[in-house]
Amino acid sequence: MLAIERYEAIMQAAQSQGWVRVTDMAQRLGVSTVTMRRDIGALVDRGLLERVYGGASIPSRAPAPKRGGDQARRTRHGATIGLVVPSSTYYYPGVIRGAESAAGVLGVRVVLAVSHYNRELECQQVARLLRAGVDGLLIATADPPDPDPAVIDWLTGIDVPVVLVERSLAGPAAARIEYVRSDHAAGAEMAVEHLVSAGHPRVAAAAGLRSPTARWLFDGHTAALARLGITDGGVGHTELPRTDLDPLGNAEAIGSLVDRCLAAGVRALVVHADSNAAAIVHTAAERGLDVPGDLAIVAYDDEAAALAEVPLTAVAPPKFDVGRTAVETLMLRISSPGDDVATRRMSLLPGLVVRSSCGTAREPLPLSLPFDRPGGR
Fold it and tell me: HEC states along 6-39?
């Protein structure tokens, strides 16, 4: 366990019960009492804890601001921030955990609200949080990340600091809107590079229909093809309907995508999200194809990629770090509401988790083979 992770665990325990004991925390985290005393001492030095016999407690009063670069000393202890996300069940739990972790270290409270990708409900949730007196807002907007003037006007009109999460807005009107997001375009490029390094000269891409991630993924895919001098075989960018809203449409679109890839000699795909990538594995198996021998796949999101029929190599956006960094950015803005701190717009690089779905490319299959094998159509 890293020191920062221990600090977060200590602060979470202290916030929940008001104090921590050295021996209890050392046993809980599996470290020596010497290490735990050092960790607690570091938090005491930052003003986040107050030393007591055998451990430490939450300070009886907020620490006075101090000069220096340590961000924990520059935030408002005891502040409350609102976190508005489109979903609390897919993708965003990692972001939420990161936000909670940073809040524990900084001694602030996070209040969660969910918009369910509904613009009207999102506005209602924000209004409710403002009435409750939050000091700032983290918002992953329900709408795709387009520079909609109405959205920009709404965000800039909120009278507390706002930081976008996994979103960004362009244009002069949005110049002061801060954000922290995953660099999905770079993640897509990473996926294409991995497939090319395995010997695939053609790589296609597919993403969820109207997903905010789709635009960035397709941008990164296009950039990677141009940079590496390869093509997608003319398959083009494919948008796949959501399985929960249109399961039959999703299955039909995936079947069509696999057929078009095979007809074009494309044996490699970057696919958002994990459920779509897993469905492609299943569809390929129905056609008698082997993954990765006949078709290589990199999933995008890494929420359930490891659980697919063939464990999927996946791009893993830094969700936890997005949530943690967003809280730190918002608290810096809350503590410095003027122009003392430069506007922050951060894109964090995803990682690539290599599993079983991207073996070395074989020779292209005869185009008639998928339909001649048992189970083909």
Answer: HHHHHHHHHHHHCEEEHHHHHHHHCCCHHHHHHH
Rounded Cα distance between 138 and 326, Å, is 7
Residue carrying the six token digits 């009886």: 60
CA-CA distance, 361 to 356, in Å (whole number)? 13
7 band by pLDDT with thresholds 50, 70 and 90: confident
Distance between CA atoms of 55 and 63, rounded to whole angstroms? Answer: 18
Map tokens 């600091």 to a residue.
161
Distances (CA, A) of 291 to 190, 247, 267, 278, 374: 20, 23, 10, 11, 16
Residue 92 has what pLDDT? 95
Task: Write the pLDDT tens digit of every residue in 49-71.
Answer: 888 767 888 775 444 333 333 44
> pLDDT tens for residues 141-193?
987 656 567 888 889 889 999 999 999 887 777 888 999 999 999 999 999 99
CA atoms of 369 and 268, how far apart (whole Å) = 17
Rounded CA gap, 56 and 64, in Å? 18
| Mean pLDDT (whole number) for 337-348 | 82
Residue-level pLDDT at 71:
40
Structure tokens at 79: 């502040």
Which carries the bigger pLDDT value, residue 227 or residue 106?
227
Alpha helix ranges (H) inside 107-211 = 119-131, 149-157, 184-197
Burial of 350 per CB tally in 10 Å (0-12, 13-18, 19+): buried
Calculate mean pLDDT across residues 98-111: 91
Tokens of 114: 């969910």
| 363-377 CB burial, b ≥16 within 10 A, e <16 | eebeeeebeeeeeee
Does 252 or 171 have the greater pLDDT score?
252
**Phi, psi (rounded to 5 degrees) for 116:** 55, 35
Burial 90-115 (b: 16+ CB within 10 A, else e): ebbbbbbebbbbbbbbbbbebebbbb
